[in-house]
Amino acid sequence: MPLDNYLEYLQTEKRTSPHTVTAYQADLFAFQDYLITEFEEETLDNVTPMFVRSWMAALMESGVSARSVNRKLSSLRGYFKFELRSGARTSNPCKLINGPKTKKRLPAFVEEKAVNNIDFHNRENSNKFEQTRDYLIFELLYATGMRQAELLSLKHNDIDSAQYQLKVTGKRNKERIIPISENLIELIEYFKDLKDQNGFNSNYLIITNSGKKAYPKLVYRSINSTLSSITTMDKKSPHILRHTFATHILNNGADLNAVKELLGHANLSATQVYTHNTFEKLKIIYKQAHPRA
Prior knowledge:
- The protein is mostly helical.
- The chain has two domains: 2-85, Orthogonal Bundle (DNA polymerase, domain 1); 112-288, Orthogonal Bundle (hpI Integrase, Chain A).
- It has 13 helices and three strands; from the N terminus they run H-H-H-H-H-H-H-E-E-E-H-H-H-H-H-H.
- The chain has helices at 2-12, 18-39, 49-61, 66-85, 112-116, 128-144, 148-152, 182-197, 216-228, 238-251, 256-263, 268-272, 275-289; strands spanning 159-160, 165-169, 175-179.
- A three-stranded antiparallel β-sheet has the order 1-2-3, with no helix packed on it.
- Helix 1 packs antiparallel against helix 2 (18-39).
- The model has no long low-confidence stretch (mean pLDDT 90).
């Protein structure tokens, strides 16, 4: 089936993350269901721009956000581009279709003052192993800006203690090197000693209380709990620390291109969104400092 070929292409050639492949698959299946229900079309072979616009309108009318509609449209675009390249189609029905406009949202981040108020040593949790792991999870995400998936795949042999750096495998298996501090190296070594004392020999750096490779929900719960102690912001996910990392180092004078490399962004435009946060800070300073502001 053409759709199966496309999904295989995403997984094997483009090395798209499993989460993204699943999302694309769900979008394409939903579009197929809509075609059957509304137009009695059982395949994607005869899709026209009118079919796509009709689906988008139905999604908007049902309360689906503009951001989600754009993502679904992106799924269709990718599939039809694939069909066009393979010679299965002669035109892309999504080519001239624009998605609904969305409001630009600035990335949420934690203030530096709040981050500095975190005290892992006075936690009620008496489990030293778990307490240290939570501390390490937070420090790794905040100190490096790595993604949650990158953290979970991090292994001990990715840490270069002599050079104060670590290797991260990002999207599409692209590797990058991130410098880290001596304090973070010491924390990693301390946690490794705790793992040895508990008889855990996993090469993965972050593990569960039973010594197995950690999973996304564990990291989410850990970060959510930590951030709940210092902030009332609605979002308290691991990705917030990636935003926080980028915003803080830009606020403190880091070069935009350097931040792009540290985050593993393919394009500078993805990094520039964080400059809006730094500009907001400049506006606050201006209002506070200028006599006529």
